[in-house]
Design brief:
Layout lengths: L1 E6 L9 E6 L7 H6 L3 H7 L10 E4 L9 E6 L8 H17 L4 E5 L6 H15 L20 E6 L4 H22 L7 H14 L3 E6 L1 H6 L3 H7 L7 E7 L10 E6 L1 E5 L19 H16 L4 E11 L11 E3 L5 E3 L7 H14 L4 E6 L4 H6 L4 E5 L2 H14 L3 E3 L4 H6 L7 E2 L8 H10 L6 E6 L5 E3 L6 E4 L4 H11 L1
Helix pairs in contact: 3-4, 4-5, 5-9, 6-9, 8-10, 9-15, 10-14, 12-15
């Protein structure tokens, strides 16, 4: 989809469909109604066009020039309208426009709203809802002919720069969704690393390297090596750096860490076969931090970043780590592996320790870590755990601005006690099976070396976020917009 911005009269558009938002218990926008000869106002007065949230109606102006149709979209009560409702309204409008065989749409940014935030949200909702993953289909059944190809945003003030930046971020979120959707035979750890290195070659100011097994072994990363042992695919430690030596940022180096298990069988503690095919998405955290880093670099935000992604498969074989094995993480702490399906925390342990040792002063990790977080928060919120109130609050504010919501959950000495081992420093799963998500976060905290740190458990939001019209079933790319906003607000 090709986005653009135009400053001026919404009805002067060359798009075939003009989307106009209506507020509940308020008349049609005066300027647009007058340009349409009062037809929009009459449609509202008749009750056919409603301001109730997500209600839609279609008007065919029947005049020379301008749009062939006007699609009204209910925005709800004006005082309750915010960017998240704009994203949802944009998504439902796109769906209806597609049903009407529209090829281009123009959105009139509602008057009186915070135009920059709302316009960006309308673009986000439209471009995210337009996403399709069909590269493996030999026939697309004519769907290509039904897609909306162009999006125009129209407002009274100049929002061109904001629209351009929002489009860049959404582009990277949709690439993260592509990575999530790729099957594990096409997205191996080495190919994910290749993708990241392609980003390095494409974007000025972005540097990086992909460390292979020999270098990982030199760094004594027992967690990553232990999980990778069962697979024929070699692991990679993907390291990206941005803003180094530039003096960018006033708050030190921000570390981003993302779990990238490109396929998770559970290892020797094998998962049930039902829906195991979806375990190709266990690299969602890694995809999010790679693409967020690329977007931040393209935007040229004044911040210093260190991004670390441990990438591996988790497979059962004669070489695989077994329950009861003891491994040593790169910071020297030993872990008894009671359950090989709790592998994400093992590879994150090495990545977090690496980020801390390389100078990250604040660290945020994203991981599809526990099924328990889905039971607790569903697909609405990601679980947020943090040892630092300021970092937690910054993430909370970014989550409200982007609609990628977080809910802070507790860390407590009781949970820390559960991680203590009998024959090693730590166990990766407690026999008591209590507070599983908080337990996992407490385990990860052992490897951040006292840095300000936040853990986002995205198991519920990374996939099948069907309570959000603009992402729906399948891959969501959750976290890209959140991290970009965090970087922008931190710079």
């Amino acid at each position: 989809m090709r986005p653009s911005f135009r400053q001026g009269n919404p009805t002067d558009t060359s798009a075939d469909t003009l989307c106009v938002g209506l507020f509940e218990d308020q008349p049609a926008p005066k300027a647009i109604d007058e340009a349409l000869g009062g037809a929009l106002g009459r449609l509202v007065e008749s009750g056919e066009a409603k301001g109730a949230f997500k209600k839609m109606a279609t008007l065919h102006p029947g005049r020379d020039g301008g749009p062939a149709r006007v699609l009204t979209v209910g925005l709800g009560k004006r005082e309750e309208f915010d960017p998240e409702k704009a994203r949802i309204a944009a998504a439902v409008a796109l769906r209806r426009a597609g049903e009407l065989s529209a090829r281009s749409i123009s959105w009139a940014v509602p008057e009186g709203a915070e135009q920059q935030a709302i316009a960006s949200a309308l673009l986000e909702g439209t471009m995210l809802a337009a996403y399709r993953f069909d590269r493996y289909k030999s026939s697309r059944d004519g769907d290509e002919d039904k897609r909306v190809e162009e999006l125009e945003l129209v407002a009274e003030e100049d929002l061109g720069s904001a629209i351009e930046e929002a489009a860049i971020v959404v582009e990277h979120q949709n690439v993260a969704r592509d990575l999530q959707n790729l099957p594990s035979n096409d997205l191996t750890p080495s190919k994910l690393a290749d993708h990241a290195m392609t980003r390095v070659s494409e974007i000025d100011g972005l540097d990086g390297e992909a460390l292979g097994p020999d270098r990982i072994r030199e760094l004594e990363m027992g967690g990553l090596l232990g999980v990778a042992k069962g697979s024929h695919e070699e692991p990679r430690l993907i390291v990206l750096r941005y803003g180094e030596g530039s003096g960018s940022g006033s708050s030190g180096v921000l570390g981003l860490v993302g779990k990238a298990v490109t396929f998770d069988t559970g290892g020797i503690s094998i998962k049930p076969s039902g829906k195991m095919q979806e375990m190709k998405m266990d690299m969602s955290g890694g995809a999010a931090v790679i693409e967020a880093t690329a977007a931040i670099a393209r935007l040229g935000l004044p911040i210093r970043l260190l991004t670390v992604v441990p990438a591996t498969e988790n497979m059962p074989s004669g070489h695989a780590t077994k329950p009861g094995d003891i491994i040593t993480i790169s910071n020297g702490k030993t872990v008894e592996v009671n359950n090989t399906d709790a592998e994400g925390r093992l590879i994150l342990a090495d990545a977090l320790a690496y980020a801390a040792s390389e100078g990250a002063e604040r660290i945020v990790d994203l991981a599809t870590l526990t099924g328990a977080i889905i039971t607790a928060l569903g697909s609405t919120y990601a679980g947020l755990f943090s040892n630092d109130d300021a970092l937690s609050e910054a993430l909370a504010q970014s989550s409200l601005r982007t609609g990628e919501l977080t809910w802070r959950l507790p860390l407590h000495p009781d949970y820390k006690e559960l991680t203590r081992g009998k024959v090693a420093d730590l166990v990766n799963v407690s026999e008591q099976r209590k507070a599983s998500s908080a337990y996992a976060a407490s385990f990860l905290e052992e490897f951040v070396d006292g840095r300000a740190w936040a853990h986002l458990d995205i198991a519920g939001t990374a996939w099948d976020q069907d309570n959000r019209d603009y992402v729906g079933k399948g891959a969501s790319g959750w976290g890209v917009r959140l991290l970009v906003d965090l970087a922008r607000s931190s710079s």
